[in-house]
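Hi support team,

I've been running sequence recovery on a batch of backbones for a student project. Most finish fine, but this one hangs at about 90% for roughly twenty minutes before it completes. I'm not sure whether the input is malformed or the queue is just slow. I've pasted the structure tokens below so you can try to reproduce it. Let me know if you need the job ID as well.

Thanks,
M.K.
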């Protein structure tokens, strides 16, 4: 798999985690609110913001049974959440000015064309749309990178989507492990699926998080997620189906900071001794071989003549059997480090 370059970032196995603030429909149909959310997300340090573009009539049947999570029927709810498609070019410019990528989950041909027209570097396919082979074919044919959320998916369904993309000569694929419950219980997160997907399809993987808080998203980064998507709101008290489990601007900034700290903590995996910053303690607080009494020049050093304790200026304790039986070349004061030059 290769890196995927966006307008302002690069996504890849050796790149820092790409963090998406999922605005979705939390703009509540208010353009000014959408703009404020973009600006505050950018200030929090994310790499991208993402919206959802759909029309109820092409998204749900009017006869869809009522869902227990929502007070009203899903068709009516989705109709209320439709974004004004005249916003996109303005939102794209605002994102550009704030140096964050502008992303979307388009659910029909017009929405896909808008995404391409405003220069979106990645087009997202939602978990619920992973089985829509026509939608995936159309999106992957744009030449844009394709990001999938894989909530509810079997590996075979992911394979079908990946094969469609590659059949269209599009290998810029990102797949996010996801749980399609709102909010999602922690025990359903299945973060290990990221590695399963990465190994199965040789793609960039990440995690789309619907749990409360940020600790599971942070854990995903520690396990190798190269993309994190997190629902975001200005206030969980606002009306709308996705506000209650989203994180607020200060929490978003905190999550970004934690993720960057986690990435910085992972290191290179090598164990080559003390780092420069550890040298003072390496010398002064590590154990080495010291004299337990005054040892005169010419004396043969016995086991009882030495002790292992701090500091670390003497011979390494692992060499103790090479010290016992040697002759002191100089007078050695009690409680002093013994070095090779002394024996």
């Amino acid at each position: 798999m290769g890196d995927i370059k966006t307008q302002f970032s690069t996504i890849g196995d050796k790149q820092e985690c790409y963090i998406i603030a999922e605005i979705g429909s939390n703009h509540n149909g208010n353009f000014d609110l959408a703009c404020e959310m973009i600006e505050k997300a950018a200030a929090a340090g994310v790499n991208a913001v993402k919206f959802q573009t759909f029309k109820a009539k092409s998204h749900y049947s009017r006869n869809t049974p009522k869902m227990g999570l929502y007070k009203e029927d899903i068709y009516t709810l989705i109709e209320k959440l439709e974004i004004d498609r005249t916003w996109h070019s303005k939102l794209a410019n605002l994102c550009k000015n704030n140096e964050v990528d502008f992303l979307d989950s388009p659910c029909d041909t017009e929405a896909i064309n808008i995404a391409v027209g405003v220069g979106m570097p990645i087009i997202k396919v939602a978990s619920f749309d992973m089985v829509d082979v026509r939608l995936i074919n159309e999106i992957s044919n744009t030449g844009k990178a394709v990001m999938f959320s894989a909530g509810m998916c079997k590996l075979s369904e992911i394979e079908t989507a990946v094969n469609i993309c590659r059949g269209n000569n599009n290998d810029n694929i990102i797949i996010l492990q996801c749980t399609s419950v709102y909010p999602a219980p922690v025990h359903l997160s299945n973060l290990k699926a990221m590695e399963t997907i990465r190994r199965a399809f040789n793609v960039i993987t990440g995690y789309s998080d619907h749990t409360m808080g940020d600790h599971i998203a942070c854990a995903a980064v520690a396990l190798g997620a190269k993309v994190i998507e997190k629902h975001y709101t200005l206030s969980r008290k606002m009306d709308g189906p996705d506000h209650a489990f989203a994180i607020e601007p200060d929490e978003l900034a905190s999550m970004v900071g934690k993720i960057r700290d986690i990435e910085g903590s992972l290191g290179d995996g090598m164990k080559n001794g003390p780092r420069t910053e550890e040298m003072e303690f390496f010398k002064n607080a590590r154990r080495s071989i010291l004299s337990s009494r005054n040892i005169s020049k010419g004396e043969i050093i016995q086991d009882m003549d030495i002790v292992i304790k701090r500091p670390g200026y003497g011979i390494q304790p692992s060499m103790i059997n090479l010290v016992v039986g040697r002759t002191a070349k100089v007078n050695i004061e009690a409680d002093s480090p013994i070095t090779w030059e002394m024996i």
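--
Follow-up from support: It reproduced on our side and the slowdown came from queue contention, not your input. The CA atoms of residues 92 and 119 lie 8 Å apart. No action needed from you.
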